[in-house]
């Protein structure tokens, strides 16, 4: 036994107890006649004391030479602390050391192991094992473990079976690029790592498994945008004999369970909004509804005046930014510059200041009188003191721009509170999405998503109008889960493949096993998948998923700690029947 | 809502209730005036009844045309069954159907979906989604889910944190072959899939995580022996500030928890045996101790007589097979043939029948008198009616042969009871293992395993004699877990790498990040990993792990259901900067 207690558990009630502790030296304070050492482990900090009166001079000398991050074991007696530290749970006691053993030394760490470290991102990634010693990272990992355990408890208690699906599967051309794995035993052939267990979970439904879940790694070989990882974790679920309502019910329950157990937050029924409404009201299919600033379309009241910019626009849309009427000319100009940045892409912005005296001052006073502007205020719900921002142009683009502006203003005003949780369902997604470049439609969710009842015929005439039994769970402006009711009829599935541009041969080659399976009595089924990394980050009140992953990769897909990927031996390549086109 | 109840829950108390059920047609019995249909889902079977008196003739006709595995929904009333079936929980009731909807049809399945199916292994693998509908497979998967949930509960309750380690890591030459994953973004470089999260869990200990676990997929590109899978699941654990005793304690606790919760079996302290004793007494480092037949070494009492076979042998070893003295001459001859098979490899076998009258009859009566044989009986613990089997020769080989014979006799005598559980710890494993072919030593467990205290010097003089702080948990003749106390001192680790034949440069290239980490205060630590597939199979009272894996691969590493691995497009190869040496 290396220790009788952890560094986080001793209290006043332990005074006079002989204890053995082990941990890392956080800090040493040498006051000459007395040396204090903060000893740290996963569970907390305990102050050790060595003093001239009660400790041998040899021991005091030993303590004096302890370096930061040395691993030590101490035996001693718990005593009352003269100057208590109410900030830490062990702050009322200290341990008077009688024996000190250095278990391992440490060279000076490349950054300080403190809550606020002096280490930059790159350095901390390279020495991730030291970064994990820091409370913020350590606590994030513990938090993640707690969330996954609660997910498992809830789903198990609701009759779900966790089934492991294979990692070495088959490459499909659909969607993002697969990572592939050359097979040595099957020369010239490759496995693929799953982008999701989609087909396997559907096969489990064909297999009668009824309620399946799995917390599982998935892989996508994409060019990494910020905060994407080539491997990520999914809470993957599927149910049989269900309609959309049943699924929303179960997973709304899961989300409530997590919010309650993990955050102590109780939330009643989640609002639901259709995809079309979300786009109309928030310009976004994952709206943050912790705050208002809902879109008001002003076409009817702002067009047909002399303002040509609006008259020639497909959409004129406005939001009322609360309390921003006081913006100076300079601030307004800066905001207009902001919406004109290429990342946002608006041509300009019209604004109306709603003065406290009930009057309006706008950038288009030449075209609109007070009465006109009062209508805008009414439409947007603007109150005295608010700033109405108006964008116009092409409908889809303008909505996206306004959504960006809405989020920016919410950030500036501090309305996106990390400890406030506003989940909602976005439902009735389009089945297909037009690829502007190729002019082809592809599945918005995936090719197994079922169209709304009675809309199958629309596929022929107006594919973009077909709505799907597809839904996303959105939390604080992030999509944390998405799913659909699947097609369980092989004829409907064949029609879908056709509309997605697969020849029957291609469909057979890629999804033959699924189509075969559907011949043997597939039940009606549907499911959902949550992005665990994102879910945990949001529940943790943070934005970056990387902080919730033990060993994340950087934006080039590299693990800088272990220096992977890396070249492999010629012998390994030969065994795999491979050679490099260009030597590495 | 597709159903109000499952097919497994209706009881007599539900009689007169209107219900909606959904499931698969297991069987239809048409008696003309009445048709019974067994409806099946994950939860059970419910008998549906359609009859001339109470059902419309149209409905009766519909029922008559239901095929096996059709997916149907029925509405009806729960009624009492005239001839009850006590074998199933729903056997007292049936549902008088008022409405029948066919949700999906099925073509005739390639094998019967019954507990005892007519489908062969290959066919069932190809249509695994249908095999999963069968109770034996379905129940195995549910059982597995239950075991993993209990593992997680126990470890969480004991302060362990589940941390996900990466799947895209770096290839190391140690041990079995890695599966590799070419990187598109890092041209000419490869990730490797982990054979285990060994180094990452050690880095987590350096990171202060203290108690880590993970249920995780691991990958080995080995030529597959029977009942090995290229991807398998491990319960991976590591603890800091522990000695061997602490680890055995926690994981003995886990095993007891599982046996109690899953099997209702309570077991007191697990026996412990050293590796050397296990080899001496059972000829095997994973002894099945559900039965006796312990080895007795007869050298002292059987050598130095006139029997040259024994005199020239390094080892003469015997077991007493209970109740086998009655073996006929023919049976004995067959047994001798059995030990001579190449798979066993003995040259011959001496036997002694211990007759009921206390006399002995042996195959070596020419050399040994009754008094000699009585000593053999005493040494082996043979009783009247037992058969003593004696093998001799080279020590290691003879032990292995005798171990095979012991297991064979136990199987023949039905002593390996699937519902009896006899766990034990095998401890003090050799640190190194001699590779007979190359004459080099390699790590028996892995290169991070620590030698027993004070034995480091022995590495120079007698490497094979060094014992390690390594242990296996053995259950019913299977190794289900193994681990060790790790080296936490970078000097000791460097010495180990040297003895394993790594140059300092090779060690640095392969394990540099671990050796770097050990400079910053690595705590004493150790761990264990359980093979989940095997553990679940044994707890389930079965031998083959494949039956407990949802979608297993065959002995060529192929998934015959999805037909993977498979060739990939030229475009994919080009993007990865790869070409095939020989076209596939």
TrEMBL record, chains A, B:
Positions of the UniProt region annotated as Aspartate: 198-201
Domain Aminoacyl-transfer RNA synthetases class-II family profile: 144-552
Signal peptide: none
Species, as recorded: Pseudozobellia thermophila
Residues bound to ATP: 220-222, 229, 479, 531-534
Enzyme class: ligase
Function: Catalyzes the attachment of L-aspartate to tRNA(Asp) in a two-step reaction: L-aspartate is first activated by ATP to form Asp-AMP and then transferred to the acceptor end of tRNA(Asp).
InterPro entries for the chain: Aa-tRNA-synt_II, aa-tRNA-synth_II, aa-tRNA-synth_II/BPL/LPL, Asp-tRNA-ligase_1, Asp-tRNA-ligase_1_N, Asp/Asn-tRNA-synth_IIb, AspRS_core, GAD-like_sf
Sequence positions that bind L-aspartate: 174, 220, 445, 486
Binding partners and assembly: Homodimer.
Protein name per UniProt: Aspartate--tRNA ligase
GO CC annotation terms, alphabetical: cytoplasm
Subcellular location: Cytoplasm
Reactions catalysed, as given in the entry: tRNA(Asp) + L-aspartate + ATP = L-aspartyl-tRNA(Asp) + AMP + diphosphate
């Amino acid at each position: 036994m290396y220790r009788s207690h952890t560094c986080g558990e001793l209290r006043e009630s332990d005074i006079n107890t002989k204890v053995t502790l082990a941990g890392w030296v956080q800090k040493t304070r040498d006051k000459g006649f007395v040396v204090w050492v903060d000893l740290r482990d996963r569970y907390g900090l305990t102050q050790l004391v060595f003093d001239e009166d009660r400790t041998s001079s040899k021991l005091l000398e030993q303590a004096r030479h302890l370096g930061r991050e040395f691993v030590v074991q101490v035996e001693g007696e718990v005593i009352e602390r003269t100057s208590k530290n109410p900030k830490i749970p062990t702050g009322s006691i200290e341990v008077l050391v009688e024996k000190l053993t250095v278990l391992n030394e440490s060279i000076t760490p490349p950054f300080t192991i403190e809550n606020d470290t002096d280490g930059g991102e790159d350095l901390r990634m390279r020495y991730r094992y030291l970064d994990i010693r820091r409370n913020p990272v350590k606590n994030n990992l513990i938090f993640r473990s707690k969330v996954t355990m609660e997910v498992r408890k809830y789903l198990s208690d609701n009759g779900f079976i966790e089934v492991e699906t294979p990692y070495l599967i088959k490459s499909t051309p659909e969607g993002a690029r697969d990572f592939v794995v050359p097979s040595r035993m099957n020369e010239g052939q490759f496995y693929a790592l799953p982008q999701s267990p989609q087909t396997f979970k559907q096969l489990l439904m064909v297999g009668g498994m009824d309620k399946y879940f799995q917390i599982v790694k998935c892989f996508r070989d994409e060019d990494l945008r910020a905060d994407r990882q080539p491997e990520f974790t999914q809470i993957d679920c599927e149910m049989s004999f269900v309609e959309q309502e049943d699924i929303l019910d179960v997973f709304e329950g899961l989300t409530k369970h997590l919010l309650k157990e993990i955050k102590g937050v109780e939330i009643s029924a989640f609002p639901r909004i259709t995809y079309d409404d979300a786009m109309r009201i928030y310009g976004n299919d994952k709206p943050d509804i912790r705050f208002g600033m809902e879109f008001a379309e002003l076409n009817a009241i702002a067009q047909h005046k002399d303002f040509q910019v609006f008259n020639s626009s497909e959409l004129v849309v406005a939001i009322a930014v609360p309390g921003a009427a006081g913006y100076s000319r300079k601030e307004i100009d800066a905001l207009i510059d902001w919406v004109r940045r290429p990342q946002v892409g608006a041509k300009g912005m019209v604004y109306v200041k709603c003065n406290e005296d009930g009057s309006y001052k706008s950038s288009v006073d030449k075209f609109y009188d007070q009465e006109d502007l009062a209508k805008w205020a009414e439409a947007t719900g603007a109150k005295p003191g608010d700033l109405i921002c108006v964008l116009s142009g092409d409908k889809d683009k303008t909505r996206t721009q306004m959504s960006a502006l809405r989020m920016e203003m919410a950030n500036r005003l501090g309305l996106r509170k990390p400890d406030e949780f506003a989940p909602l369902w976005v439902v009735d997604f389009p089945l297909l999405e037009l690829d502007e470049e190729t002019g082809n439609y592809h599945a918005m969710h995936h090719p197994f998503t079922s169209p709304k009842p009675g809309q199958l015929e629309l596929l022929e005439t107006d594919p973009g109008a077909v709505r799907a039994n597809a839904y996303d769970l959105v939390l604080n402006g992030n999509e944390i889960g998405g799913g659909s009711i699947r097609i369980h009829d092989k004829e409907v599935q064949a029609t879908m493949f056709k509309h997605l541009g697969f020849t029957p041969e291609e469909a057979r080659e890629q999804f033959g096993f699924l189509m075969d399976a559907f011949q043997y009595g597939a039940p009606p089924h549907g499911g959902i998948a949550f992005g665990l990394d994102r879910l945990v980050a949001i529940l943790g009140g943070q934005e970056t998923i990387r902080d919730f992953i033990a060993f994340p990769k950087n934006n080039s897909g590299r693990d800088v700690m272990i220096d992977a990927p890396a070249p492999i031996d010629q012998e390994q390549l030969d065994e795999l029947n491979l050679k490099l086109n260009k030597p590495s």
